[in-house]
Backbone:
């Protein structure tokens, strides 16, 4: 149910939050996060527009996290590229519903709220370090 | 995060579970559920293949629910047309992960599990009766 774009944005942010805080090229991030470079470039631009990463062109340039991983949540990253769609008004367009939802859409919106709360309570920091584990660190990821 | 197809399937099933159990034409269901007829026809065919509705051609024919609404869950309907994608193996294709997930994908899968559990615990019956409420019933839906 999570879009490919949101998944790739999360991989990019986790990659940037892992290791040294130096700028990293899109190519570097693409290799580590295993995201196609073209797609990743678009995602990084969206993250830059949302103030989550910053990009610097030229020699020594690249992308960096702007916010500390402890202050950045999964929800903020997802909402920067492909916002979770809450159901605010009747999708059937029934005027008499006004701002109320029928039981079906109330239930569906409750599920979205659950996802929103779970993602909002998860910092990027909590995902870092043992994220895309390699070799000996794999047992940590289990 | 719920697809249009899943949303439409739920509306169709709730519509069929509301009112008399006689067969209803796709046109009828389309009007009540406010789903475009072409799209609805495809969704109804998927639901028929999954054994959730049955369709009968010809005079007096139409679509009917196969299972009692008390025994049919939102999860079963959603999974019949656009299954919730759980994360079973590492999406990065890291062989060393085997069947384990890194913290990011574990967290994302936890969220999908939460949705799955919420939908699995919701019967269609619990959504019926005051679903696409009209006029005086609108206050009930609040």
Residues:
């Amino acid at each position: 149910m999570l879009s490919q774009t949101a998944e790739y944005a999360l991989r990019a942010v986790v990659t940037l939050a892992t290791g040294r805080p130096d700028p990293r090229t899109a190519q570097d991030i693409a290799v580590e996060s295993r995201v196609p470079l073209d797609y990743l470039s678009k995602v990084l631009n969206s993250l830059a527009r949302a103030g989550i990463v910053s990009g610097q062109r030229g020699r020594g340039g690249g992308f960096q996290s702007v916010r500390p991983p402890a202050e950045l949540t999964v929800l903020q990253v997802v909402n920067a590229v492909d916002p979770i769609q809450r159901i605010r008004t009747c999708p059937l367009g029934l005027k008499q519903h006004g701002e109320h939802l029928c039981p079906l859409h109330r239930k569906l919106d409750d599920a979205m709220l659950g996802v929103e709360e779970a993602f909002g309570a998860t910092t990027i920091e909590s995902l870092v370090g043992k994220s895309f584990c390699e070799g000996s660190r794999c047992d940590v990821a289990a």
Summary: Residues 4-127 of chain A form a domain with the Arc Repressor Mutant, subunit A fold (CATH 1.10.10.10).
